[in-house]
Amino acid sequence: MPETTCVLAESADHRYLANGGDDPAAVAVASMHAMGSGTLVDFEGLYTADAVNREAITEPPDTRGTGPAALYATARWLRTAFSDLIWKVHDVAHDDDLVVVHATMSGRQTGPFVAYQPDGEIAAVFPPRGRTFAVTQTHWFRMRDGRVAEHWANRDDLGMGQQLGWNPPTPVYLARMLLATRRARRRR
After folding, report:
1. Are strands 47-53 and 147-155 parallel, antiparallel or unpaired?
2. Edge-to-edge strand order for the sheet containing 82-95?
3. Residue 150, CB-side half-sphere exposure with 13 Å CA sphere
4. What are the pLDDT digits (tens) for 26-35?
């Protein structure tokens, strides 16, 4: 069967391609790159209307819905805290409707990182220190009709926190965290 190329999603900065729209691995990888700098239009081309992000339980309330808008909200949340956000893909495995991607996420913390409790309340705010990080992650994607229908991940959050100076916190940083958390809770 000859391979054809089709555009899954396109914006001024992104052009995600897959062979005939039938390459689930290419779509999964493109969805990861879109987290760093994709537009809502990109997300609409990459995710099903009812796509679910299992990781959203510790993210802002607007990320906990379904579909491209909820996943785009995750991207906006990450970009608020991290600049130069990229995923370097190391390995991709694909079986039936499941794609697994092993990658390194890297960036620089230039904004506050806000963690949320399952009830949607702010758990903690980690003020920026301008540090860079690079941590390995494994992302799992359930595919349907050539798009991502479900996502979950295994991440090295402890390693990221150590690289960014969150853990263990110095007494001064701990005070900054408490003040930032108090301010964020008051704004809600």
Report:
1. parallel
2. 47-53, 147-155, 132-144, 98-109, 82-95
3. 7
4. 999 999 999 9
Per 3-state DSSP, the chain is made up of helix, strand and coil in percentages (nearest 5) of 35, 40, 25
Domain that holds residue 59: 5-187
Phi first, then psi: give them for residue 3, nearest 5 degrees.
-85, 135
Taking the C-alpha atoms of residue 74 and residue 54, their distance in angstroms, rounded to an integer, is: 11
Averaged pLDDT, 89-103: 97
Listed in sequence order, the residues at least 6 apart from 184 whose beta carbon sits closer than 8 Å to its beta carbon are: 112, 114, 122, 125
CA nearest to 81, candidates 118, 120, 57, 115 = 115
Q: For residue 151, what is the domain's CATH number?
A: 3.10.450.50
Share of the chain above pLDDT 70, in %: 89
Q: How many domains does the chain have?
A: 1
